[in-house]
Amino acid sequence: MVDNRYATALVIACVLSILATVYLSVAIGTQHWYQYSSPAVRGEANVSELRSLYEEFIAGDFDEKTYSDTLFRLNGTVGLWWRCVLVPENGHWDKESEVKMVLECRSFTLPQQFTPKYKEPGNHNSGEDLLRTYLWRCQFLLPLVSLGLVVFAGLTAFCACLCRSLTPTLGIGVLHLLAGLCTLATVCCYLAGMDLLHRVSMLPDKVDGSLGWSLYLALISSPLHMMAAALLVWAARSHSQHYYRMTAYRVA
Questions:
Q1: What is the DSSP secondary-structure string of 77-111?
Q2: Domain locations in the chain?
Q3: With contact defined as beta carbons under 8 Å apart, do 50 and 74 qualify?
Q4: Residue 176 and residue 173: Cα distance in Å, rounded?
Q5: pLDDT tens profile 88-116
Q6: How would you class 187 by CB atoms within 10 Å of its CB: exposed for 0-12, middle for 13-18, buried for 19 or more?
Q7: Looking at domain 4-244, which of 1.10.10.10, 1.10.530.10, 1.20.140.150, 1.10.12.10 is its CATH number?
Q8: 17-67 pLDDT, tens per residue?
């Protein structure tokens, strides 16, 4: 028999876990982790340069300096798996203010996620930047680990429900805590990686960068997982103590 307080805590923890998982899944699948605001197109020379950058971007060139410069100059957005630029729908670069702008995206392939970063972007002779390389790899591996922990916790909870047992609840809470920490580490790795990129690859004049809503979704999911973990751990420990007290009372 489960006390109403513990049942309520378990239901709230389940809702928080579902919300956190949905937020994290949306954050992983969208590209608005960081976005750049670029100045308007000015002059034919500027139009030719932007068109050339866009053509290289569409060609799928993964050179870090090339695609970073394109993101800087074309109001780019970048996520864990996507990089996008804002371009005129009909290709009229000289009339940017009069035409509809559309978002063109290219995904990072799995091999590209493991591509080393260099101390000078685009210069393979400058030596590998180990810190940026591993921050990049962690920022896409950690959220997958977080989702995996939540899925495993959900399967364990489902089995516990079938067995009508609260015994695994403590372990499920620990899994949610680890998932929340992994998500928080993802955000930290991403922010640190972007800061280091901007140090070695300076932003052009009048180009500003800002955090996107996808990153905030991931940031929100972390405390939600942790709150779910706290409720699960409290319910498990409190129910265990209550069970032992009842057992001792009956024996006495």
A1: EE-SSEEEEEEETTS-GGGGGGS-EEEEEEEPPHH
A2: 4-244
A3: yes
A4: 5
A5: 776 666 555 566 778 888 888 888 888 88
A6: buried
A7: 1.20.140.150
A8: 999 999 999 999 999 999 998 877 655 556 777 777 777 777 766 788 888
